[in-house]
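$ ./design --mode recover --in tokens.txt
reading tokens...
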């Protein structure tokens, strides 16, 4: 792990790699749509992804091997925004990508960069690769987001529809947190259910699909330090063009 002396300015963000968060064998995954070499049109990983085409597989860059994929036509599309940044477009109809099973018993942290492009209460931006624990879902009133590990809680309305945002989740029972960008995180208890991997875009079976742009994600079976969170937020903010 890196120390507290890490510079967190622009130069520091360029040097930081989320892979250092897995240096001691921590469980988790890191997905980065800006790395075109990590994405493929087919689940086998033999046909490179192209802008405007479907993505059936995105490789896990953490080194842990939890690649996310989808064998059916319910796949996101690789896009490039006006600033040249790459993202995956989840249409809110049926798109999703699933990792293999991983035992994310609490506590664990996840940081992502997304842009909500639609909002319907109950839709899942993330969920477990089986079951629904480990979810980040649209809940309450637009544009609210909440955690779900057996109960809906820890609601936060800071990520406006149409604006890219960096989202921080800590799944830890009564100590759970949900933050947007560098604003104060909201606390609450979404339950204590363990997540079994990650489904991006909907429940593992395809129910409750959400409409959003996906710029990246890092999930770690750990409680990250303040310095680690700051570096990871800064890294993902750069992927989505968010000013922190």
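writing sequence...
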């Amino acid at each position: 792990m890196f120390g507290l002396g890490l510079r967190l300015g622009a130069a520091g963000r360029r040097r930081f790699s989320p892979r250092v968060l897995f240096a001691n064998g921590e469980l988790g995954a890191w997905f980065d749509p800006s790395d075109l070499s990590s994405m493929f049109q087919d689940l086998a990983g033999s046909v490179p992804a192209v802008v405007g085409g479907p993505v059936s597989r995105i490789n896990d860059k953490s080194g842990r091997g939890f690649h996310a994929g989808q064998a059916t036509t319910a796949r996101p599309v690789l896009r490039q925004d006006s600033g040249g940044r790459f993202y995956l477009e989840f249409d809110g109809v049926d798109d999703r990508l699933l990792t293999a099973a991983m035992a994310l018993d609490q506590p664990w942290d996840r940081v992502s960069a997304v842009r909500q492009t639609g909002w319907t209460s109950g839709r899942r931006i993330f969920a477990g690769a089986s079951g629904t624990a480990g979810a980040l879902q649209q809940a309450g009133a637009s544009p609210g987001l909440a955690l779900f590990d057996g109960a809906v809680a820890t609601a936060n309305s800071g990520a406006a529809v149409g604006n890219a945002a960096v989202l921080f989740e800590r799944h830890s029972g009564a100590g759970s947190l949900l933050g947007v960008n560098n604003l104060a995180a909201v606390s609450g208890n979404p339950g204590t259910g363990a997540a079994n991997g990650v489904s991006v875009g909907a429940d593992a079976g395809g129910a409750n699909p959400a409409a959003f742009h996906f710029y990246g994600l890092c999930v770690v079976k750990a409680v990250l330090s303040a310095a680690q969170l700051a570096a990871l937020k800064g890294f993902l903010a750069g992927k989505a063009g968010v000013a922190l």
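exit 0
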